[in-house]
Design brief:
Keywords: Signal. This protein has a single domain, classed as Tick-borne Encephalitis virus Glycoprotein, domain 1 (Sandwich), CATH 2.60.98. The protein is 14% helix and 40% strand. The chain has one helix and nine strands; from the N terminus they run αβββββββββ. Strand 3 and strand 4 form a beta hairpin. The protein starts with a helix and ends with a strand.
Length: 137
């Protein structure tokens, strides 16, 4: 009888632990991504995701078409790099887009009723991006 009670207690404890450890990947719901409030500059690395003011989740996919002038070189044009992202609004599908380092009109865009701007992009194989999330004027 003691063995049955022990087995029942262990089964109950395991079931409770499993329920307590559930995780959803819907944007803004227990995704494990750090939350970024409005009016803050923040850093991201490729593959990283953040929750933006409870409106959804932003993932930094990577950099493509990096034609920026190398450091310590003199170039006629500074070049451009496109930083690619995926935005998943709460309760909606995923949208892909890019922000650019070399074109001021392509360095920011509206996201979730706010403005997401690329502030800077480091150099290297997996460069860190500095971003800013602000209210629209």
């Amino acid at each position: 009888m003691t063995g049955r009670i022990s087995a029942l207690l262990i089964s109950t404890a395991l079931a409770a632990a499993a329920l307590g450890c559930t995780s959803t990947t819907a944007a803004g719901e227990n995704s494990g991504a750090r939350s970024v409030p409005v009016a803050q500059t923040f850093a991201m690395k490729p593959g990283e995701s953040v929750a933006l003011a409870g409106n959804g989740q932003l993932k930094y996919v990577g950099v493509k078409n990096d034609s920026r002038c190398p450091p310590e070189r003199q170039c006629v044009w500074a070049g451009d790099a496109e930083v690619t992202f995926e935005w998943t609004a709460t309760g909606a599908g995923t949208e892909s887009f890019g922000l650019h380092t070399g074109f001021a009109d392509k360095a920011s865009r509206p996201v979730a009723g706010h403005r997401l701007a690329l502030v800077s992009l480091a150099r290297g194989a997996n460069p860190e991006a500095q971003l800013r999330f602000d209210s629209l004027p």
